[in-house]
């Protein structure tokens, strides 16, 4: 069964939090970092993965994404701080897989 993910991206100053859902986290983070799509994350330079959760099915991930998006920024920050209190880029080193 294919896994799905809810993930948060931010910019270098951590002033913007983007919440997304995907079935291929590695590919999606690559797309954000290389700015392939000219949407929200391109406009606000969100290229740092700071949080993600894994699900067994895409419908679970979509439901969780809606729940998170309906919450406050404070709640998003609490989720991030629970696993990544320094707000490090969790995808550091991932791009090397695409450079092969």
What features would you describe in this structure?
- This is GIY-YIG nuclease family protein.
- Residues 2-78 form the GIY-YIG domain.
- There is one protein chain.
- The protein is of the alpha+beta class and 100 residues long.
- The protein has one domain (4-97): GIY-YIG endonuclease.
- The protein is 36% helix and 21% strand.
- It has four helices and three strands; from the N terminus they run ββααβαα.
- The protein has helices at 25-33, 40-43, 58-69, 73-83; strands at residues 4-10, 17-22, 48-55.
- It has a three-stranded antiparallel sheet, sandwiched between helices.
- It is globular, with a radius of gyration of 13 Å.
- The protein starts with a strand and ends in a 17-residue tail after the last helix.
- The relative contact order is 0.23.
- The model has no long low-confidence stretch (mean pLDDT 93).
Question: Would you kindly provide a brief summary of this structure?
Answer:
The protein is an alpha+beta fold and 100 residues long. The protein has helices at residues 25-33, 40-43, 58-69, 73-83, and strands at 4-10, 17-22, 48-55.
